[in-house]
Amino acid sequence: MSVVILDFGSQYTRLIARRVREAHAYSVILSGTTSFERIREESPHAIILSGGPRSVFEAASPHPDPRIFNAGLPILGICYGMGLLVQHFGGTVLDLERRSFGADRLVRADGALFEGLRPELPVWMSHSTGVAALPPGWSSTAETPSNPYAAVASEDGRLVGVQFHPEVIHTPDGLAMLHNFLRASGEPFDWTPEQTLERALAKVHASVGTDRVLLGLSGGVDSSTLALLLARAGVDHLAVFVDHGMLRLREREKVEEALRPLGVRLETVDASERFLSALAGVVDPEEKRKIIGREFISVFRQEAARRGPFRFLAQGTLYPDVIESAGGEGAANIKSHHNVGGLPAELGFELLEPFRTLFKDEVRQLATLLGLPDAIRLRHPFPGPGLAVRILGDVTAERLDIVRRADAIFLETLEARGAYHDAWQALAVLTPIRSVGVAGDDRRYGHVVALRAVTSVDAMTADWARLPYDVLDEAARRITREIPQVGRVVYDITSKPPATIEWE
Questions:
Q1: Of these residues, 45, 88, 127, 167, which one is catalytic?
Q2: Superfamily of domain 193-377
Q3: Catalytic-role residue among 45, 79, 324, 502
Q4: What is the mean pLDDT of residues 368-395?
Q5: Is 205 a catalytic residue?
Q6: Is the pTM of this model over 0.70?
Q7: Rounded Cα–Cα distance for residues 211 and 187 (Å)
Q8: 463-480: per-residue pLDDT in tens?
Q9: Is 287 noted as a catalytic residue in this protein?
Q10: Segments of the chain assigned to CATH 3.40.50.880
């Protein structure tokens, strides 16, 4: 059973999915125009219609399969989704000729959606259209000082629309509202870490049986947790850690020291020269990712031939990887993750991806249950393509050395200053820019390194970390002092969106 979220292009759709899961209900995102037959495959308890950048009365605006409205399912429409509900049932939606963006407050809030909440509530608005007339039998359940239709509901209360965004943190009681909606829909609230672990184990058992599994191990929390999951499930597996030469400083040693004592059957393959050769002269980030994905599979095939046979290739693929690689319905291709959009057409394995529907924090919860040490569980994420996507332009041994040392200095500084866990992820990027500087009495024309640190929960959205100035100062001084090729250090203060966390 699930809560189906129909996506009409809102920047907040992934956040809706996260909030629903925080309420202990499983959520899945589908394109807003998905057929009713496909929606029914998810066995939905309820449907949520997302916001979107269009207006419902535009000729080319996307609309859902109309059969959802007569299926007897509870439906919550958010912003654009509210407009779809009102319009379908005979109400009127108009252009307000002004954009309402930012903080607002409800001066009246009643009905099941607001049960247990105070009557005046802060909310977050982001719209330029609104309800001018309600459908027959519908009523207003909330209003702001300027909007009498901030929330509306059908006569039976099964269909609910809100003009504001309950999924964002700027609507402090938004999670409680979503919980109220889901409770009214009969949601069992069984999406807990313990239940998720049991489902993952059952899925692995059902998929694998007695066959052997080759696990692509990166050393990060996702693949490391998957290694422990396979061991807990009693699966005959071999974890292959590929050193592609683009790892963080001392990464290989740390992975081996951490995982082997846990009983993980680990084999390390040094393929650094192979990957560096394949990337020679390649500057396009999408091409880098696809080359790296291809070379990973080639190494896995060689290991399978040497130690096999293996029917399955297991990967720690997450839901954000799938969404950003256009693996979900209606999703735009943000970037091809090496383990999704970067894979070759002919794998030679069946893929086993038990975490494909999970977010990063959900995997960390499983890691806790499986006993993964905090040293790995709480590490900052590191991309599968490694430092190759933290070098803008050509990947060479010299440039890898520069960015590897800069990255290590930044992380060491954060750890020494007690700021490591103030960021969800921190990294250094080697830009293709050089700038004039001075060292002693000499002119220096050095590389520019960008530092980036973000706060996030699931990598779908992120904000730049407000690190103390003295921490940034120390990191910049050490980098320019200890890496003579670097003449300037800058700090990236861009959120996601519009930027991604990694630069490539």
A1: 167
A2: HUPs (3.40.50.620)
A3: 79
A4: 91
A5: no
A6: yes
A7: 36
A8: 899 999 999 999 999 999
A9: no
A10: 2-184
